[in-house]
Specification:
Layout lengths: L1 H9 L5 H22 L8 E4 L4 E3 L7 E7 L4 H17 L4 E7 L5 H11 L4 E4 L4 H5 L8 E5 L5 E6 L4 H11 L10 H5 L13
Parallel strand pairs: 3-4, 4-5
Antiparallel strand pairs: 1-2, 1-5, 3-6, 6-7
């Protein structure tokens, strides 16, 4: 790249705008792999849950993390909550974690009452000063759902109603495959009780 620029500078016949154009193209070409492969890191925050726990986001490295900003007066949030519960139940045994962050304007007693009434199976956090909303990109609208990969990179930001098909696909793409189900050797040896011959070579 340096040799190309030197050649352009030494040539008196090359207009200045051509040199600038070539330089710009070269910068884009050499930088493109980094731009294409880079995703921003999620902020290293600590969540304070309604149960009194402090959960550092950094402590969840190795897991896919969903950070869901919501409010008890958000009709879409309330409508989607059963699906959020199902999402948690679906991935409960995997490297997955969800933290539902109540907005700063939501009265704590409303948040606590809602979480208890719905038996929410994931962590629910307060954001009394709006600091979490600020560092996650000035979250103002609810719901806002963010997906963080096991390395701590911010993969997706969904504002408004969640596209659950896309959300499941994002999570599945980051999780290792589920372990295979064990083979029932006794049933196989006995022909499975259906008259089929036993497995050869066992």
């Amino acid at each position: 790249m340096k040799r190309i620029l030197q050649a352009l500078r030494q040539s008196r016949r090359t207009p200045r705008w051509v040199s600038v154009l070539v330089f710009s193209v070269l910068v884009i070409v050499f930088s493109w792999p980094q731009w294409r492969n880079s995703t921003p890191l999620a902020p290293l925050v600590t969540f304070q849950t309604i149960s009194g726990q402090n959960i550092a986001l950094e402590s969840l490295r190795g897991k896919v993390v969903v950070v869901h900003f919501w409010a008890t007066d958000c009709s879409i949030c309330i409508k989607e909550m059963p699906q959020m519960v199902k999402l948690q139940q679906h991935y409960a045994s995997r490297d997955y974690a969800m933290i539902a962050v109540a907005m700063w304007y939501d009265p704590p007693n409303h948040v606590m009452s809602f979480a208890q009434q719905w038996h929410l199976p994931f962590e629910v956090a307060y954001d009394p000063l709006g600091e979490l909303a600020r560092v996650f990109g000035d979250v103002l609208a609810t719901p806002t759902t963010l997906v963080i990969d096991p390395q701590g990179h911010l993969l997706s930001r969904m504002v408004g109603a969640v596209d659950f098909k896309k959300l499941y696909a994002l999570i599945d793409a980051q999780l290792s495959p589920s372990p295979p189900k064990p083979i029932l050797l006794r049933a196989a040896l006995e022909g499975g009780g259906s008259g089929s011959p036993p497995l050869a070579g066992i």
